[in-house]
Structure formats: structure tokens, C-alpha cells
Amino acid sequence: MGRLKGYIRPYIFYIVCTMMVKLGGAVAELFVPYFMERILREGVVPGQQNRILLYGGAMLLCAGVCLALNIIANRMSAKSSGRITRKIRFDLFEKLNRLSARQMDELTLPSAQSRLTSDTYRVNEFLARGQRLGIRAPILLIGGVFMMLTMDPKLALVLVALLPVIAFTVWLITKKSIPLYTKEQGQLDDMVRVVQENVTGVRVIKALSKTDYERARFARVNEALSATDTKAGAVTAINNPVASLVLNLGLTAVVLVGAYRVAGKSVGASVIVAFLQYFIMILNAMLGVTRIFIMASRAQASALRVAHVLELPKDLEPQSLPDRTGPDAPHIAFSDVTFSYTGIGENLSHLSFTLRRGQTLGILGATGSGKSTLVNLLMRVYDVDSGAIEIDGRDVRAYDKPDLSKKFGIVFQNDFIAEGTIRDNIRFFRDISDEAVERAAADAQAAEFIAQKDGGLDAAVSIRGNNLSGGQKQRLLIARALAGDPEILILDDASSALDYRTDAALRKALHARGAVTTVLIAQRISSVRHADLILVFEDGKVIGMGDHDALMRSCAEYRLIAESQMGTGEEADA
Question: What does pTM read for this prediction?
């Protein structure tokens, strides 16, 4: 919460001005019943009818001032709250983009989305409405009581005696509601996750006829969220009826006591009419105060969630480590690297190998065997638990993140294609020349299908590349990775949708680039058989290491895969 106060501090003066304007409007509103009482008391006296015009004009003036100042204050509060929330939302988005993969794993993507949307909205709602109700309601409440005390202290004490009851009710409701709203936001994260998974996997869900299962899964999280929301709503819903009941009982008491005092000529009937107006004003103000507390409960729960992300410490910062750069340093070196995502069981165990600049590393293995984990560690998406990874003799943990990222061009298994043009997707908001874009498209074997599109490189691409085939998507993504002229090219199962002829042409084009060190994660022997070094993974361990010929002789698992994909051992060696 302390972090969020820093966003409000630059606008303190503006907020104070807003509240002063709102204060002026509330004070003007307080005088309306007062002048009405003067009209009833003095204007009905024979010969004093001109007082009606005088006090009536004063009433109209107060009403006009109240209207004008309230409009100005409302616009000012909307302006300041919007700017504060915009800054919070921007910083939150930037922070989320800078979180390490491990921090994002702990936070979860659905939770990040709901914090960026619904939580910031609730903070904005409280900031905007809090400035308006936060000054107007208390002033009308306190001012109304003060005006009643000046008119008739005994009648006013009837109302004052009821205020502690309402205050206790508000405190109790606030105490009960904050934990419920915090729980509700957590359940909203679960709902976002289910919806996100459902939308992303809609084709698979329909293909496997799992629509009913997904509907039931959504119903469970929806019912849990609805139950919590209903419970929180039931708690806060007690407030208005209780406040109305107590204040209406007080109103009845005022009427009864006032009737006796009028009968005893202790007070005039005009005072009772003014009291009723002030009573209604105080009732509305009290309800406004309770709404502030309800909004504050929801906003506090959301603000804590936002502040939690903003206050997360920086991770994966550059470290001071020994530098072994030199002409003989390998381009990539893994030295006894061990890593675990959860700390329970090793996802990569005691991995060591070296690659010279321009060489190709092929990686084979079953799903979950550690292939992508190797890439994540090389790019320092995660830090190793033990051992070291070096690029040009320098530990990856010693690089600044931007400098390290510039070294890589990467294509993931399920990569992102934006709505726009083919050129936009290859360039991807980078300062890359048209010549580099065209060369990358040619090397990625994408030039042929691009030439067939209306507009060529400027042909439209729909969201997620839905108007492209699987092979066209992969070639477009490979072109994007090559366009930045990377030192290290990582292809994570990036040619699975390519035919053998295109795959072979791609490997030939990559080899012609010379100085690019390539890491190929593949399921096909043909994609990696010409690699300088091939690693065969099983359960996070390397069970085979060497080139194709060496593995055919020494690794039974590799030989089995080769024979199943390419025929007999003799054919595989061909």
C-alpha cells in the first residue's frame, strides 16, 4: 500500500483543491433547508411577503452554486483519478513484463491479467468516487447535525444518539467484507485462467468433444466466485437497511418529540419542517459514508494485490562473475549444469558440452525430458541451480539482459503471430531494413509463398496467423528470428510442419550463414543428423552425446528412433 501512496502524492494539491470545491458545494447545500425555514417562519407573516423573494432567491443561489461546484469537483476528481490509475496501470504492465519466468510462474498469468484490469479498475473507482463522496458526505453529515443543533439542541440530540449505532455497523461490515473481497479476487483469477484455457484450446476441445466437460469446469469456478460474491454482497447489503432503519426510527422520534414541543410552543412548525429536510440530507450522507467504506474495502483488497506485484524484487540482475573471454573460448559452454523448476526433482542434471561459433547443436528427447529447459537456461529465462553457462567465455549471469537478448533469434513451438502484414511480423517493431527482411524470408524458405500472396511482404496476416498454413507460420517465424542477424539461432521444434524437402533447404540456408551457432530441438532425425553435436535427453539427463554416426553406434535409444523414422540402420547411416 505504501507503494501506491507514491502515485497519489504528486496529485495531493490537485486533490485538495477538488475537495475544497466539493466542500463549497456541500456548504451551499446545507443552507437550502435553513432559508426554507426562514421563509416559513418570516415569509408568512403579514407585511413580510418580500422575505419570500429574498430567502427564495438565496435558496436558488445556493442550489445553483451547489450544482456548479459539484460538477466542477466531479470533473476534477475524474481527471486526477484517471491519471493516477493510468500511471499505476502502466507501471504494473511494465513490471509484469520485467518479471522473471520464475516470478511469473508463482504469480500466474490469469492473476496478472485480473490485477491489471479489474483490480486497477476498483482502485480507480475508489479514487474517483472517494474524492466526491469522501468530502461531501461527511460535511453534509456533520454540517446537518450542526445546523440542527443551532435550531433546536434537544431535537438534534435524538439523532446524535443514533450515530454510534450506525458507526459500529459500518465498522463491523468493513471488517467482515475485506477478507471476502480478497478471496473473491483470487477466485476471479481462477475464472480468467479457465476462460483463457478454453478460448486458446477451443479447437482441441471441440475436436475431442469435451465441450460438456469444459462447461462443467467453468460452472465450478463460476459458482465458487458467485458464492463468495453473494456472501460479500450479503454482508455489505446489511448496511443500507440498518442505517435506514435506525435513521427512520430517529426521524419518527423527531416527529413525535417535535410535535410535543410545537404543542408546548417551545419550537415553531417551521423548525420541524427544516429538521425533516436536514434529516433526509443526513440519511443520504450516512448512506454515502457507508458506500465509501464498502468501496474502500474492495479497493483495499485490490490495492494490496497490485502493490504486491509492484513491490516484487528485481530478479535475474547482472552478477559480477569471473570472465574467461578469449580467442580460444567456445561460443557456448555448459559446465555441470543442474536445474529444477520446483526444487523437487531435477529437470536438468549435470549437463556439460561445448560448441564453437557456427556449429549446430541438435537436441532429441521425449516431451518433458529437458530440451526446452536447456534453451531457457541458455537465454537466462531461469538461473541455473548449480554449474555455469557461458557465451564467448562469459557467464550468462554477467550479461545485461538487453545485451544477452540481442545475441539470440528464437522460434518457440507455439509462437506469437500478430495481426498486421507479413513484413510487420518479420520485422516485429525492430529497426531492420527491407533488404534484411527479404533475405531472412528467403533463408527461411518463405519467399515462395510470400510471392504468391496479394501484396507480397505487405500481404495481410490475421490474428494468430489464422489465414496461414502451419508450414507458412513456421517459415514466417523462422524469418523473424533470422531478420535480427543473431549470433545464436534457436529453433524449438520449429520445422515440425515443414516437408522434408523444405526442411533440407532450410538447413542448407542456415549452414550458408556460417557464423550463426544453431540449436535445433526436433523430433525428426533428419532435422538433426547433420548437426555437429547431438544430445539425446531422457528425464533431464543426457543418455547420448555425439554426432549422428557416433550415436548410431553408441546410443540404443537414438538408433531405435533413427530406424523407426528412416528405415534400417544402413539406410539411416546413408
Answer: 0.72
Q: Is residue 88's pLDDT more than 90?
A: yes
Fold of 358-385+397-573: Rossmann fold (3.40.50)
Distance set, CA 263 to CA 78, 119, 158 (Å): 50, 57, 18
Residue 530 and residue 526: Cα distance in Å, rounded? 8
Outline which parts of the chain fall under CATH 3.40.50.300. 358-385+397-573
Burial of 1 (0-12, 13-18, 19+ CB in 10 A): exposed
Instruction: For residue 523, give the nearest of 312, 316, 369 by alpha carbon.
Output: 369
Q: Which residue has the cell 450522507?
A: 285
In sequence order, what DSSP letters do the residues of 363-384 get, joined into one string?
EEE-TTSSHHHHHHHHTTSS--
The pLDDT, as a whole number, for residue 363 is 92
Kind of pairing, strands 533-538 and 541-546? antiparallel
Nearest to 357, CA basis, from 484, 477, 489: 489
For 167, 287, 340, the CA distances from 244, given in Å and listed in that order, are: 13, 8, 59
pLDDT digits (tens, 9 = 90+) for 91-133: 999 999 888 888 888 888 888 888 888 889 889 988 888 888 8
Burial code (b: 16+ CB inside 10 Å, e: under 16) for 222-231 equals eebbeebbee
